Structure formats: C-alpha cells, structure tokens
Amino acid sequence: MNGLDAAIEAFVAEIARGAWFAACGEPLTDSEDVDARLLAGALGFAGTGLARVADWREAAQQTQRPDWSRAWWQAEAAAEAALKTAAIARFGEAALLEELSRVMLAAAALNGAAALALARAHVADEALARVAAGAAAQACHQAALARAADAGTGHAFAAKFRLFAGGRWPLGVVGGRLFVF
Amino acid sequence: MSAKTITNVEAFNAAPEDYQTAVRKIVRSHAVNELYGAQVFDEPAIALAPTPYAKWLTCRVAMEEYGHHVRFRELGRQIGLSEDEMTPKGRRPLSIFEFPLKTWEEFCVIKLLADLAEIIQVEDLNHCSFQPLRNLARVTMPEEKFHAQFGKDFCTELCRTAEGRAKVQDAINRYFPLMPPFFGRSDSANNALFRKWGIKQNNNDDMRADFIARARALVEDHLHLKLPEVREAA
After folding, report:
1. ipTM given for this complex
2. How many domains does chain B contain in total?
C-alpha cells in the first residue's frame, strides 16, 4: 500500500463515521464558527459575515437565490485545480483518479444520510436530499484532493469537510454572507 | 430453455454460448453508455448549471450515472467481460455522444428525453431471464426515473420565459432526432436473439414507438412545444 492508498483508506473510513447533516439548523459551536471563518478566509472571503439557516426549506431557497457568489464557486474551482496539479505531481494522474473514484463511491452513500435528515425534519423532498448529497460528495472530493496534495488541516477544503462531517452543510456565499446550515 | 430463469452466474456459465453472448452484449452496452453519459454530459453540466442547487443536484446525478456504470461493470466482470470491453476506449459511441454539451438547456433536454430512452431500455430488462441482470435493472430504475424527472422539472422551469422556451425547443430540435436510432434496427438479429432467450421482451420498433409516444406527451402535452418528426422504423 503506498502513501496515497493509506491516506485515502483512512479518509474513506472518516466519511463512513461522519455525522452527515445531523446538526443542520442548530446554532454553530465555537469550533464550527472557527472552521467556517477559516473556510471563507482561505478562499479569499475573509471578513465575510456568517449567517445561520434555520431549516431545510430555507436551505433550498438560499441555494437558488440569484445573488449567489460566482466568485466563491470559482475560488473553490481554482483551489481544486491547484490541489489536483500538486497531487498528480506526487502520485501520478492514474493513481490519483483511481483513489478519487474510491472516495466518490464512498460518498455515494451520503444520499441516505441526507434523506434520513430530511425525514426527521418531516420534509419529503427527494430532489433536496440529492442536492445535499451532491454538495457533500463535492466536499469529500475536494478534501480528498487536499489530503493527496498534503495541504494540511488549515486548508479551506479540510475545514469544509470538518463542517460537513460534523453534521453541517456550508451553502457558500449568498448576498455577501456565508450561509451555514 | 427460452423462458427459463437463469438465477446466478454459475447457471449462466452452464447456459448455451448464444445466451451468454447475448447477455454480455447488453451488459457491455449499458456499462459503456452509462460511463459515456456521465463523462460527456453530466460532468460538464455541473459548470453550466445556473445555481448552487442545480450544480449540486447535477453533481449527484453524475455520480448516480457513474454508479450505474460501476454496477454494470461489476456484473460484466462476473460474466467474463474484460475491463477494456466496458469502457468507451475502442467502442463506437452512440451518435448523441459525438455532440459536445454547450448549454444548460441542452443538458435538461438530454435528461428529459435521453433518460426516457434509457428508462424504456431498462424497463425491458425488468423481466429478463437472467436474474442478476433483472435485479440490476430494477435497482437502477428509480434513479433513472429521477433523472428523467430532473429533466422534466428543469425544462418546465425554463419554459416559463419566451427565451427559455426557444432554447429548449432548439435543443429538442437538435437532439431528439438522434435518439430513435438508440433502439436499434427494425430487423436486428441481436434483438431477435435477445427475445428468443427471454433476455428482452420487446422488439426494437415497439420500444421506439413507445419512446416517441412518451416523448411526444412530454414535449407537446406537458411543455407545449413541438416534437420534430422522425422515422418510426430504422
């Protein structure tokens, strides 16, 4: 087993142990507040105010607002591209893609966690469960890239993964504020 | 043994060579086309999606399509197909995959209509004589239905404006004529073999006619747009 295999195996186990969507709607803890600010700052949005999201309906609305930040999405895409380049330099493209496929298959199970959280909130919305699962899978992919590139726990995607795995859903910057459900 | 159920891979290995060949063709076709679909349409569509909601939903849909490839590939391995046979390398793709995706409207139309075509193909396997393939069809079906619903919901949303209606109609005009050939030739020897062994139930023309009728209901009755005329036989 090479270094990447071991790192991804450990990461896949972390995905399985996560409290996915279990704390959505609750007030942020101090460490979650720190991670949310770290996420914003590391992507070039230092000083952006945090906003709570009360429930799943509001989460659906916030993710469809026309004033969502394209710059936030682009900053994540740029960070992903940089990590991918660094990870390929360490392990080669074929090995990296194979390991990222393992992460994606592990993240496929997160639809169940999202559906369960929605059911507990008495919200019947198959599409919204998939939206949440898609966001969580993206976070897993990004965090796996950060691990493969040895970017450290202070990287934006490490913080984003901690928020997700701790039961949160960071929705991104909308209307100038970072919404965290 | 034309209608006999083959319950597992061991029984499959003891089945006539013709039967094994026929099942392998279907599994290989699904494995290749599910991967093509994810790579050519679903993954690029994430960047085209207009909101984070649509981007994450598309991300999930891409994962599910890739998951279908993985399931068919796993079954393919069990029945003796090689990895190379189940990836797009060296396999001639369906013609639709040769038209790169450029707009969100195109993607929504592909989900609306190409996934309907996929549903009809998978429905035909719901009573397949090879039980592992039948089970795979049944477990895949709810996700395929959701993907087609995704296309219907977003096309409905887009059609609320004149500009959106024009773009959806344009995408239908360009993509729909490519789809009826998915169902194969009217005189297909493969289809005759599939039906002889109870692997598939319907002939290509019947499935094509079903597809066109259901597509017409979606496009003309629901979206109030026009479905281009196409030949009902190939």
Report:
1. 0.95
2. 1
